[in-house]
Amino acid sequence: MKKFILCCLFALFMQTSFANEMEWSKTGHRTIGEVAQNHLSGKSKRALRKLLNGQSLALISTYADDIKSDRTYSKFAPWHYVNYPMDKKYTEVKPSKAGDVVVGIEKCIAIIRDENSAHEDKVFYLKMLVHLIGDLHQPMHVGRLEDKGGNDIQLTWFGRGTNLHRLWDANMIDDYGMSYSELAGNLPKLSKNEIKSIQKGDVYDWVEESHDMANILYDSVEVGEKLGYDYGYKYWTTVERQLQRGGLRLAKVLNELF
After folding, report:
1. Would residue 124 count as lying in a domain?
2. CA 3: distance to chain centroid?
3. Could you tell me the CATH number of the domain that includes residue 40?
4. What's the mean per-residue pLDDT of the chain?
5. DSSP code of residue 169
6. Of 43, 96, 130, 214, which has the fewest beta carbons less than 10 angstroms from its beta carbon?
7. Domain containing 88: what range?
8. Tens-place pLDDT, residues 27-47
9. How many folded domains does the chain comprise?
10. Where is the signal peptide (predicted)?
11. pTM of the model
């Protein structure tokens, strides 16, 4: 019995660890939600307030991760990322039968847009959409299959063991020490033209952008490398840029939907 309990605890630990390695940190997602909230049209704000009972985009932004522990939602796990060869484009590779982040975003948009969709379905897929657009802008969610989007590339961050995926998911953002509202409020100030430029294109353009960034990040480290202040200083502007892009593009998608 003792051996059985230990096995169960180990399995739970591994499941939780893997789940934590496949997501932006809560701070990252909430920052994206906050940025989007600040760029919604009046019409979108009213529609979202009604659907979400007044909850903010920052609050619901982690919903798709929160439900991972419930096996009822296991089929949505592949929606958080997409892996394909670094020398290919998304449209050049056969899509996974289980789906991916691009498929997930398109599915969410279709259900929200459908006038015949049930209210509870619109709410669920809206929460998923907010999260998935955030995931799309974490470059290691658009990485290589063979290393699980950088999860197998082991590193050290300020003396703590980590991997390339987790470094970009959580380590850099969480160790920066700002809340999501502080991060959102201190991102670079952009002109209207700069915002329009960032919001151009669609999910197929944005996935390629993240894919190109993932290529750069793969080359930014060596397996077993000890990282710290130098790496954070060099790449923090990239973190900020991805958070800002994710929020502005989420706002664009929502404004078009509502």
Report:
1. yes
2. 37
3. 1.10.575.10
4. 92
5. I
6. 43
7. 22-257
8. 999 999 999 999 999 999 999
9. 1
10. 1-19
11. 0.90
